[in-house]
Amino acid sequence: MARAVLGPLLDLPADDRSALLGTLDAWLDCGGSARETGRRLYCHPNTVRYRLRRVEALTGRSPGDPRGLSELSAARDVLRILPQSGGADR
Question: How many other C-beta atoms are found inside a 10 Å radius of the C-beta of residue 6?
Fold first, then answer.
């Protein structure tokens, strides 16, 4: 399920993948606030927005769209629960 949603994002180099997934996680935890996410990650809100646009470009799912948000959030939950097993379908 996670691979179907996150697809190419999971194939990025570890640093890039970690930055994008970490930003998505923080953004979800901050209720979708780029400003609060930036504070939490010690980066500018525009950096947060840029990373979220990269998530959208790679996955085809917009965090700003209700359906995209629910699919991205569910995929992140799967990866958290099953990080090394079948969660990522690897």
Answer: 27
What CATH number should be reported for the domain holding residue 25? 1.10.10.2840
Which parts of the chain fold into alpha helices (H)? 2-6, 14-29, 34-41, 45-59, 66-81
Q: Hey, what are 5's tokens?
A: 């949603």
Average confidence (pLDDT) per 10 residues, the chain, 90 residues: 90 96 96 97 98 98 95 93 56
The encoded tokens of residue 37 equal 């996410």
Query: 56 in a domain, yes or no?
Result: yes
pTM to 2 decimal places: 0.87
